[in-house]
Design brief:
The protein is an alpha/beta fold. It has eight helices and eight strands. The chain is about 35% helix and about 15% strand. It has a six-stranded mixed sheet with strand order 1-2-4-3-5-6, with helices on both faces. Strands 7-8 form a two-stranded antiparallel sheet. It is globular, with a radius of gyration of 18 Å. It binds zinc ion (ZN). Zinc ion binds next to loops.
Length: about 325
């Protein structure tokens, strides 16, 4: 693995560009969560997983166009099984060289180890996977209707949540494969934003620790927009924990500065905790709050359409 380490994080400048910003539709987003759940848990090698990849492929082709969607298919071994995995990549305004990356993981966890009643059952994955994907699906619809001022690539990573608890070598399978096998040589977006668990009732997003190392100016701008929009109870102006997720894989392999918006807590002992439904059977539609996804989507639209200085614009 190629490792790139930077002692000084890049500094991004954001200013209000006075541009119009399209509206995010939280109802669409909720529907996209329901549609994913209807397949069942999207566990690698399952029928639901195969059906879901067709669904994502069709959705993003409709939004970005057939020529701008690439399904990166690959096999990998884990726990004695050969897994057939797929990353989905959709490019908006592909002619623009100035780009950003948005990502979420689309796979569901094959076990619910935090659920005493059903530890062997796969997680429905409404929030853990489903909500971030749903927000990106709705952003894709908006990018089709109102092309963004900067090029945007959406990536759905597969196999993020496959590893057994603590066994990090079998997590992040899709992002690792993508980083090591870049579909576009020399791909160099300004930054990346990962969404993970962005739809739970009572969600809160403290500033995730790795994100604050990789791109603090980007984190602070997103959280500032959240505050401006009156979402300070969601985008908490507090340091969170370091959460191992696809963003650290992308950052370490490719050097793309990537941050993570993720619902988590710092508990009284100062260690990482997730919501009570995390990695249980309760991570289903009942714990989804469409307003949380709506707020995340609105903040991202403001960032993408109105805060990034771009040279191409008149
Ligand atoms: Zn998970």
């Amino acid at each position: 693995m190629l490792t790139i380490s930077c002692s000084e994080p890049p500094k991004f400048n954001f200013t209000n560009q006075g541009r119009d910003v399209p509206e995010f539709d939280a109802d669409n987003t909720y529907k996209y969560v329901e549609e994913q759940l209807a397949f069942g848990p999207r566990v690698p090698n399952s029928q639901a997983h195969r059906e879901a990849i067709q669904y994502f492929n069709a959705h993003f082709r409709q939004m970005a166009g057939d020529q701008s969607v690439f399904v990166q298919s690959f096999k990998t071994e884990a726990y004695g099984d050969s897994l057939q995995l797929y990353n989905v990549i959709a490019s908006f305004s592909p002619e623009k060289s100035d780009r950003i990356l948005l990502a979420a993981h689309w796979d569901s966890r094959p076990r619910s180890e935090m659920d005493e009643s059903a530890p062997e059952s796969p997680v429905p994955g409404a929030d853990d996977g489903g909500s971030g994907v749903a927000v990106l699906m709705e952003l894709a619809r908006i990018f089709r209707d109102t092309p963004p001022p900067i090029g945007v690539d959406i990536i759905l990573f597969d196999g993020e949540d496959y590893g057994e608890s603590g066994d990090l070598q079998y997590y992040f399978l899709g992002s690792r494969h993508w980083g090591q096998n870049p579909p576009v040589e020399g791909y160099n977006p300004r930054f990346g934003i990962l969404l993970d668990m962005v739809g739970g009732k009572g969600a809160q997003f403290p500033k995730e620790g790795y994100s604050m190392e990789y791109a603090p100016s980007l984190v602070n701008e997103i959280w500032r927009i959240g505050e401006e929009f009156g979402y300070g109870d969601l985008f908490l102006d507090e340091m969170g924990q370091k959460v191992a997720d696809d963003h650290i894989i992308v950052q370490r392999i490719t050097g793309i500065p990537m941050i993570n918006i993720i619902h988590h807590y710092v508990n009284d002992e100062g260690t990482l905790e997730f919501a009570e439904y995390w990695h249980t059977q309760k991570d289903d539609i009942d714990i989804i709050d469409k307003d949380v996804m709506g707020k995340v989507g609105s903040v991202l639209l403001e960032l993408i359409y109105n805060r990034i200085p771009t040279d191409e614009l008149p």
